Every structure is written in C-alpha cells, then in structure tokens.
Amino acid sequence: MTLTPLWEVFVRSRNGLAHKHVGSLHAADATLALAAARDLFTRRNEAMSVWVVPSNAITASDPDDAAMLFEPAESKIYRHPSFYEVPDDVGHM
Amino acid sequence: MYTQGLNAADKAPPAIEDAGRLGAFQARIDAEQKIEPNDWMPEAYRRTLIRQIAQHAHSEIVGMLPEGNWITRAPSLRRKAALLAKVQDEGGHGLYLYAAAETLGVARETLVEQLLSGGAKYSSIFNYPTLTWADIGAIGWLVDGAAIMNQIPLCRCSYGPYARAMIRVCKEESFHQRQGYEIMTVLARGTTAQRAMAQDALDRWWWPCLMMFGPPDGESQHSDASTRWKIKRFSNDELRQKFVDATVPQGHYLGLSFPDPALRFDEATSHWHYGAIDWDEFRAVLRGDGPCNRDRLAARNRAHENGAWVREAALAFAEKRRRKAAA
Ligand SMILES: [Fe+2]
Ligand SMILES: [Fe+2]
C-alpha cells in the first residue's frame, strides 16, 4: 500500500479576502496538489487563488491546552471599546 | 441511507473509559458544541464515525458508476455536460468524505482497500442497473433527492469535519436533483414512448429509493448512540416519510404514477401513506446479491489497478525531484 502525502488547501475567494482553509487532499507533490485542489475545490468559481501546504508542516495547539491558552482573554473586557463610558453628548467615537 | 451497513452491531469490545471524560464529552454534545479532530472522544464515537463516513464516501465513489455508464450516450451536448459535471461532483464528494474520515486517524488507502476487497458497505441503491436514459433522470430526481433529505441534517452533525464536508456536498446536490427532474419533465411531456420510458424508470427506482433510508426504526441497532451523540438527527422512518411527502406530488405533477397500490394521502396526518417495503430484497442487495454488486466491485477494482502506474509514477517523480533538490 503506497501512501501519498496529505495537503491542506486554502482558497482566496475574492481579492481583498484572506485565504481560508477549505479541506485536505492527497497528492505526490506540490504541483499535483495544486492541480487536484483546483479540480476539487474550485469547480464553481470559488477561487481567485489557491494555497496548498503539507499537512505535517502545520503545528497546532493542543485542545487540552485550550483553557490555559484562551480563557485568560475572557476576563479582560477592558480590551474592548464598549467597556469605556463616553458621554452621549460627545457623539460617535 | 448511505450508511445502511451500520445496522449491523459493532463487534469490537467496549473500551474502558473514564466516566468523567465521558460525561464532559456528552455535555459538550448536549450543548451543541462541535467535536474537532484532536479533541478527546469515546472510542465508540470514533469507530461509529469512521464507519459511517467511510460508507458514505464509498457510496459517492461507487455512485459514479451507474451514471457514468450513460455519459457517452447522453442525448445532447447540454445533457452530456451536465452529467459529466454531476459525476465529477460525486467523485469530489467521495474525496471530501475520505478526508473527513482521515481526521479520525484512519488512512484513505486503508478505507479504499476495504471497499475494493468487498469488506466495506456502500448504499444498496448503486447496485441497480441504469437500463435507459430515463434512469439518469430518475436517479437525479429520486436518488439525489433522497440523499439530500439525509444529508441536510448531517450538516449539523456533532463532528466538525463531517458537518463541514456535508455543507459543501449539500451546496452541490441541488443541481443534481434539478437536472434529473428536468430530464423526467422533458420525457413526461414527450412522445408516448418517452412517457413510457419515464414511467418505467420511476417504477423500477421507487422502491429501491425508499430502501435507501435503511431498515425501519426499531430494527436499527446503531440509532440510539448515534442520536445521543447528535450524529443522527432524524430516524430512518422519519426521513423516509419526509422524502415520500416531498416526492409524490412532484411525480403526480409529471402525470406519472407510483408503483404502490397502497399509496394514498392521509388527511388526518397530512402525510402520504405508503405500502410495505420488501426488506428481503434490501437485505439481499446489502449482502452482495443485488443485480449489479459484483459488477460494481469489479469495475472499481479495474479502475484502481489501471490507475496504479499513475500513482507510482507520480510518487517516483516527486522522490526524484526531492533527491535532486537535496543534492
Ligand atoms: Fe453526492
Ligand atoms: Fe449527487
């Protein structure tokens, strides 16, 4: 059984938007991965640009660390503009 | 549906798992949170999903065969372009689904191997032959129609990658059903012979389509856990009834009749009541004794073997370039 490498596919749907992860596929190399990504994810005008990245090149955070990593931000509401009071008379700020 | 084979009980011994983790997992499901690939999950949840997603993927792949049979004989360029695009979509659906299954820790090659060796199940519906052009209309209208009924609730399935694959799939399915119904419309409004062809296709596909939703509730051994885990949102019978209710008026609109003398509208329930389904036929097809089971598997195996040199050449070329770059 031969295993072909796995690639993650990112698509920019319109100029001005960031590339967004749309899925993954198997291909022997980057050229074939791009060709397959085009066939698989852009059959209905979904893309202006495609990136393919070897899946094993991605380092992901551990879901078990999610609380440690992200919960501290929850209590810091003073990082948001709505935390501060500005008199109505001042108008939009 | 595409995962009818799940009705056989899971034979693996139950894993011993921490009650606290199981409780926390179920609480996340109950709160409608999505489960993502690296999250902790019960072994049975993982196994159920791998089997379900793999069977679904195999169904999309084998599903290309009955329609592929008519691509070269489509009656016009318009029909040929549409059918090619549809069959290509189904191949894509298979690939989205294999990728979703792989996030659970199984290699696509392993799943493909299981399909080719006959060890894996796929939907019973693709073991019926496409005898005339009207069958292409009937498949789009009825088979894709039934698939949509099943796949729309799966867009809300608790497993993130499966739900996301289903959203992509559902966006593409609607054209499949509409092009099929258009074919039926043209035939139904055509000559006497064309009308008869449309009626004959409906006669042959109707019952197998009702079987697509799987055995009646109560005989389905996997439903309880799948419902608790929010993989399954509606029962087989609920989905089947929805399909009948949606489809019968569409058939009557075409002036076609359904091959079910017991079919009648029940005023009290506002549902179309349908007659008894031949579950012996269903079990025979699932077991491998349908009209085309051997043919379908042989065709898949042939395609896989004929493509082997392409896969090997691509890998060899990639390896050669890697060595060159390293030198
Ligand atoms: Fe499909
Ligand atoms: Fe389809």
UniProtKB/TrEMBL annotation, chain A:
Pfam families: PaaB. It comes from the Bacteria. NCBIfam families: PA_CoA_Oxy2 (TIGR02157). This is 1,2-phenylacetyl-CoA epoxidase subunit B.
From TrEMBL, chain B:
Its EC number is 1.14.13.149. InterPro entries: Aromatic_CoA_ox/epox (IPR052703), Ferritin-like (IPR012347), Ferritin-like_SF (IPR009078), PaaA (IPR011881), PaaA_PaaC (IPR007814). It is an enzyme of class 1 (oxidoreductase). Keywords: Oxidoreductase. One of its GO terms (molecular function) is phenylacetyl-CoA 1,2-epoxidase activity. Pfam families: PaaA_PaaC (PF05138). The keyword Heme does not apply. The keyword Oxidoreductase applies. PANTHER family: 1,2-PHENYLACETYL-COA EPOXIDASE, SUBUNIT A (PTHR30458:SF2), PHENYLACETIC ACID DEGRADATION PROTEIN PAA (PTHR30458). This is 1,2-phenylacetyl-CoA epoxidase subunit A. It comes from Acidiphilium iwatense.
